[in-house]
Amino acid sequence: MLIVAGEALIDMTPVAHNGGTAYVPHPGGSPYNVAMGAGRLGTPTAFLGCISQDAFGQRLRSHLAASGVSLEYVKESEHLTTLALVTPSESGEFFSFYCENTADRLLYPEDLPAALPANAALHFGSYSLVLEPGASSLELLMRREARRRLISLDPNVRPFLIPNREAYLERLLAWLEQVDLVKVSQADLEWLYPGADLESIAQEWKQLGPALVVVTQGGRGALAVTGQAVLRVQAPQVDVVDTVGAGDAFMSGVLSWLWQHGAWSRAALESLTGEQVTDLLNFAAKVAAITCTRAGANPPWRAELA
């Protein structure tokens, strides 16, 4: 089983309307998207987080359930749902978050499950590890479960919500010591390490603790740093409609590939061959590419990959 912990929000996505712009609500949030994507790919998945009881929260829960995701670890809140205003730009989408005192950041230590299933993997990521009090609660869970089960991380950096890059980076490096798998985008690394060689940074991250480090590069594909080599794959060529959620879809593809191939532990991750890691990257890239062909974070179902 995969348990995905973090935020659940509504992305307000712009569309042309009567000569102007209208905003259409789409369920989102990086961990939320990963959970939805993994569920659709047939991986037994549960979401762990705080979701509002408002109309948007009801929509968030129904989308998870419809994608085969368990709500066993969801806490309901009377606070409002976080909104993210999506603004397209030449370098990708820019997100403006309306998240003060909203439901998904109000996760407390007492809301965490006392125990998790023995075979469950955990995934963390994005601003849920930045905004308090939820960030400290999830860090507590990460430390508690480290080396007891497979743990993955996608920092999915949101500069708008990070007042101090150096302090955030110090915190992120501490997370790397706890996790077994990390996926990070080229854009994230360029913001964290301006002007640095990204492959060298990925190799440095590998030395801090993860058994596998994956760097996504948008239309250029992805690379992975293993214990033996740096492996690369190209991105499938598709007609791009929207890149929102593409990185999350890639992450759900990685985790689903690992589940389907029985590589559900750190030891199994470390034993993957170069051919297997390349297959993993190609599978995840295909999942992300299909997501880019439609609006909003709308990852594919398993049957669509055929």
From TrEMBL:
Residues 3-301 form the Carbohydrate kinase PfkB domain. The keyword Nucleotide-binding applies. Signal peptide: none annotated. InterPro entries: Carboh/pur_kinase_PfkB_CS, PfkB_Carbo_kinase, PfkB_dom, Ribokinase-like. GO terms for molecular function: ATP binding; kinase activity. Keywords: ATP-binding, Kinase, Nucleotide-binding, Transferase. PROSITE patterns: PFKB_KINASES_2 (PS00584). Belongs to the carbohydrate kinase PfkB family. This is PfkB domain protein. The keyword Thylakoid does not apply. SUPFAM superfamilies: Ribokinase-like. Pfam families: PfkB. It comes from the Bacteria.
